[in-house]
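Design job #97: recover the sequence.
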């Protein structure tokens, strides 16, 4: 059938093909949700998407291949049974019933899969899905014509193979929309900058680091609220459009201080955010190996985080958590006159914690600054939170909050959900540290678990990811640290299983107490088998794999 004959409104098969193409385009949008989700959580940066696509752990692609194979097989069998080559073409529609059925089952099963960061239908995502729908519609229609003309044994069954195009179609549509998205982005950023330019009274604080950003942000918010009307970036609004939304939607006239968390995955990200916010003061929470995979090297991590310091004015305050070598290096190289080092063990720390007690009930310590000191107590767990408190106290003191007010604030601090959050459930204590993990955070979580005496200790973990070449070593060391504390270790997923096991066995942990499962739900079922109601337990959930690892 020629192109002209097929694409003719008087051709009933062309009209039916349009309806089939619409239905298929809708199905492809839903089938593509995983690809769209990965692109979104990668910050619409194709590198993160490529890493996922090239990773054998991305089982979604093989599932789509299976969907296409089963659908195509059913189409071919149906066409053979009805001998569509010699009979009326309408019989070739029947095979599509199987494709539609398998696609719906596939979509339902994928939607039921647990997701840490579900796809959010933002305006940008709506534009992307709209273009994907149009492209899918056109491609389906052209393939139907091609098959009808040259592959009559397939006819409309060629629709069944269109899902395999999605790994390419999603980034293709993304690239097509980049110029439009840049214009929209610049428009909103320009509006945000204009709003900020009119707020000469506004004190702006930038917070960045490999870990601890959210915790320091929340602690600072409580402390600074004693003197200022604070606007804090909510959730993980630490990207250009996230901060833009905060400025345009959340920042009110009555606010006189803005705390901006700044995230980054590659060189230049923090500099871009600073050009938007123009912070007067900055906090470096600590430098580690987090996102090593996208940064490429520790030097790039330090360089990127240091972009905040380079954007501060000469009279700005810069506070460094010098518990890590990277932050100490940044402090040493900082040329600002108002730079302050904070460390639990250094005599040069601006603020000091003395008489420290770290146990299962929280933290108790004496906070010292200049010639003053005050006793403090908080329910927050872990040595790392003491470090976060000192860093926050340093900047709050420099901004005029009194030592007494800081002590009051510390007593009011509450744990952030899924960040070493304590959940007391009868004989079982749960330490929920599942939001994310890094080398230093995992170490702090294990130290905290050790504080719970006379309890059976269990750790549920997939290990630590996004560490590049360091991942195997760090997870092996993590396993070694668990072996000295835990009675049982449940390893979730295969991603780091071998490395964690290696560390556990090297430190003489009983192999019978090392359990490997595929999913978090499987881990919870194992916990039910292990737990004896006559005993007391402390269970640490350390990390939950990002969706691009499941």
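Job complete. Output follows.
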């Amino acid at each position: 059938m020629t192109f002209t004959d097929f694409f003719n409104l008087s051709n009933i098969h062309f009209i039916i093909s349009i309806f089939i193409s619409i239905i298929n385009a809708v199905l492809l949008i839903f089938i593509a949700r995983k690809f769209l989700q990965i692109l979104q959580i990668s910050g619409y940066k194709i590198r993160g998407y490529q890493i996922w696509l090239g990773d054998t752990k991305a089982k979604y692609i093989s599932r789509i291949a299976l969907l296409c194979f089963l659908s195509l097989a059913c189409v071919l069998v149906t066409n053979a049974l009805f001998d569509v080559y010699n009979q009326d073409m309408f019989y070739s529609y029947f095979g599509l019933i199987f494709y539609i059925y398998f696609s719906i089952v596939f979509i339902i099963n994928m939607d039921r899969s647990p997701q840490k960061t579900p796809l959010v239908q933002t305006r940008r995502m709506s534009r992307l899905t709209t273009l994907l729908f149009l492209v899918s519609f056109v491609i389906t229609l052209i393939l139907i014509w091609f098959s009808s003309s040259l592959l009559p044994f397939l006819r409309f069954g060629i629709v069944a193979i269109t899902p395999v195009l999605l790994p390419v179609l999603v980034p293709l549509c993304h690239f097509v929309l980049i110029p439009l998205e840049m214009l929209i982005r610049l428009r909103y950023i320009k509006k945000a900058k204009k709003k900020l330019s009119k707020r000469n009274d506004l004190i702006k604080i930038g917070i960045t680091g490999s870990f601890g950003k959210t915790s320091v942000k929340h602690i600072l918010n409580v402390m600074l609220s004693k003197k200022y009307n604070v606007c804090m970036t909510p959730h993980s609004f630490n990207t250009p459009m996230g901060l833009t939304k905060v400025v345009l939607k959340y920042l009110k006239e009555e606010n006189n201080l803005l705390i901006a968390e700044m995230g980054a995955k590659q060189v230049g990200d923090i500099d871009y955010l600073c050009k938007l916010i123009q912070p007067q003061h900055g906090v470096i929470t600590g430098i580690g190996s987090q996102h090593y995979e996208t940064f490429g090297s520790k030097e790039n991590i330090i360089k990127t985080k240091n972009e905040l310091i380079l954007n501060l004015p000469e009279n700005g305050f810069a506070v460094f958590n010098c518990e890590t070598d990277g932050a100490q290096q940044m402090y040493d190289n900082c040329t600002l006159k108002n730079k302050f080092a904070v460390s639990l063990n250094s005599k040069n720390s601006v603020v000091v914690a003395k008489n420290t007690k770290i146990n299962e009930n929280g933290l108790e310590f004496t906070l010292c600054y200049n010639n003053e000191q005050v006793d403090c107590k908080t329910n927050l767990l872990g040595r790392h939170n003491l470090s976060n408190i000192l860093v926050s106290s340093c900047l709050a003191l420099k901004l005029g909050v009194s030592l007494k007010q800081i002590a009051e604030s510390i007593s009011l601090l509450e744990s952030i959900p899924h960040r070493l959050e304590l959940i007391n459930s009868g004989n079982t204590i749960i330490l929920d540290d599942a939001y994310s993990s890094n080398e230093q955070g995992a170490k702090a979580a294990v130290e905290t678990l050790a504080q719970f005496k006379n309890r059976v200790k269990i750790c549920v973990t997939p290990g630590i990811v996004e560490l590049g070449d360091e991942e195997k070593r760090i997870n092996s060391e993590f396993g070694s640290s668990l072996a000295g504390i835990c009675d049982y270790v449940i390893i979730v997923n295969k991603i780091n299983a071998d490395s964690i096991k290696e560390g556990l066995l090297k430190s003489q942990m009983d192999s019978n107490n090392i359990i490997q499962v595929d999913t978090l739900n499987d881990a919870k079922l194992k916990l039910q088998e292990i737990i004896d109601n006559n005993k007391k337990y402390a269970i640490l959930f350390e990390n939950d794999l990002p969706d691009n690892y499941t």
